Amino acid sequence: MDYSTLKYTVSDRVLTLTLNRPQQLNAFTVTMANELVHAFERASEDDAVGVVVVTGEGRAFCAGMDLSVGGNVFGLDESQQPTLEDLHKRLDDPTIIDGVRDTGGRVTLAIYDCKKPVIAAINGPAVGIGITMTLAMDIRLASEKARMGFVFGRLGIVLEACSSWFLPRIVGMAKALDWVYSADIFDAQEALVGGLVKSVHAQDELLEAAYAIARPLAQRSPVANALARRMLYRNSAYAHPLDAHRVDSLAVFYTSQGDGREGVRAFLEKRDARFTTRASSDMPSFYEDWLARDGK
Ligand SMILES: C/C=C/C(=O)SCCNC(=O)CCNC(=O)[C@H](O)C(C)(C)COP(=O)(O)OP(=O)(O)OC[C@H]1O[C@@H](n2cnc3c(N)ncnc32)[C@H](O)[C@@H]1OP(=O)(O)O
């Protein structure tokens, strides 16, 4: 697939995924959603990719849904207003989910299901879906020029793309309610204090800061990275009792024996480890089952 709204560039096992509509402040469209879903599925199976870094071309990260489409951001006219029951039926049937154009939700799930760690390098304004899409990413870094906002209340809509699931888990319920109710656009320092971003960087040092995290992580065992990511998210799905988690934890521990033995040998021999497992083919059989059933 050729992308018209993204750039997909791999170097040193790090995929840089760049939102690429700079004239429109990288505003989010249905095409961008489709391309993001494709790119995250591709990154998941691309053994040349160890870690994904997401950033924006130009001065913005993403100005949210492209509002130039007018009031119809949902892709529905009023006569098509689905009931909750309809939506549940549609969610169970992937062939008609596109009919309700759950653009944000599909992107969130593609990121959530990705086998690779994902880092957001927020280089400028990130509001609406521009910030909520980063909640499904594992680490967020911001430039000094970043401004963020859960601005939905200003538009009379409710935070979307499963962000009400992620936001309180990341920043706590009090901060989530504060930002959602105020609908304010806040700066990188406030995001840092609130726990939304890990660190704040000069504009021209942001990507290098992201790569400094991504590059060594991309050299680690791909299967261990994927399983650690899945275990943490499954755990935070709160749908998973501790006893069951203990058994799964043991299964994951034994799965990591392949690269794990090599890691221990390399440590003892004072050399770099040579990990050989592949996330495309060496995932344990329970992994697909978890993806299909758990935590969503
Ligand atoms: C289901 C829904 C999901 C959602 O995502 S809802 C949220 C939708 N997005 C928004 O409500 C954001 C609206 N935009 C803003 O608040 C601000 O912009 C920013 C904070 C993103 C950036 O502010 P600044 O740096 O001061 O730029 P500027 O002068 O406001 O914008 C430059 C031009 O870009 C247009 N623009 C900005 N955001 C959008 C958008 N989301 N869709 C379409 N156009 C947009 C503006 O109108 C303007 O245009 P011109 O130069 O002609 O005045």
UniProtKB/TrEMBL annotation:
GO molecular function, one term: enoyl-CoA hydratase activity
Tagged with keyword Ligase: no
Database matches in Pfam families: ECH_1
Leading EC class: lyase
Keyword Lyase set for record: yes
InterPro entries in alphabetical order: ClpP/crotonase-like_dom_sf (IPR029045), ECH/Chromodomain_protein (IPR051053), Enoyl-CoA_hydra/iso (IPR001753)
EC number assigned by the record: 4.2.1.17
Protein keywords: Lyase
Domain of life per record: Bacteria
Family stated for the protein in its record: Belongs to the enoyl-CoA hydratase/isomerase family.
NCBIfam families membership: PRK08260.1
UniProt-recorded name of the protein: Enoyl-CoA hydratase
Organism from which the protein derives: Parahaliea aestuarii
Lineage: Bacteria, Pseudomonadati, Pseudomonadota, Gammaproteobacteria, Cellvibrionales
